[in-house]
Amino acid sequence: MDCYHENLVEKRIEYLTLNSKFIYTGLECSDCGATLWNSDTDRKFNSWLEKLYKSDREKFQIQFGLSKNTISCIKKISEPFPGVGISALFKAIVAIYLELGPNTTFQKIINKVIEGEVYRSFRVRGKDRFKIQFKPMPLMEINSMAEFFDETPAQFVEEGILIILSIFVENDQKLKDFWEENIKNKLNALLKVA
């Protein structure tokens, strides 16, 4: 049944995220229970997130694992960027993965990549652990996408890194073209300012 949210009640609302509660006064539909989020709520939430980030940065970290094979590839990609840390490289790759995500062409590329030998070689056991701290808004986007794909944030980050690196390594011409046209310049731009 569709609800048009005609019976709104002002209420104290608790929104749980990052194992913390954002508490605000907002509107709730008494018919369906939906809470309405407006620009004022958005501003307050962003302010609350920034305070949380300053007081407890550990909540904004994601730990994931990568195989030795993947780490070798990371080193190869980072060669043109001396002095750029691995954390900045991971963040740039995840940012590109997030940006390309909804693109239908990218979805076809992902399907091609996960069938390839390179991707499978990156997924082998024997993983080194990494921990990366994200700013509040990128972390919220990662959490949302991970929830959408029924993954943990760590799985989503790891998967994004593996897919982008597989595109870089694969010999398939379509994938090489996609790398040149859609990823390489974005990666260069992001790492130049890192």
Distance between the termini: 48 Å
Q: Regarding quaternary structure, how should these chains be classified?
A: single chain
Number of domains: 2
Number of strands: 5
Overall form:
elongated
Number of helices: 8
What does the main sheet amount to?
Answer: 3 strands, antiparallel
SS class:
alpha+beta
Strand order of the largest sheet: 1-2-3
Can you offer a commentary on this structure?
This protein is α+β, with helices and mostly antiparallel strands. The chain has two domains: 8-55, no CATH class; 59-192, no CATH class. The protein contains eight helices and five strands; from the N terminus they run βββαβααααβααα. It has a three-stranded antiparallel beta sheet, with helices on one face. The protein has a two-stranded antiparallel ribbon with strand order 4-5. It starts with 7 loop residues before the first strand and ends with a helix.
Short précis:
With 194 residues, the chain is α+β, with helices and mostly antiparallel strands.
Q: Which terms summarize this structure?
A:
three-stranded antiparallel sheet, 19% strand, elongated, two-stranded antiparallel ribbon, 57% helix, single chain, alpha+beta, 2 domains, 194 residues
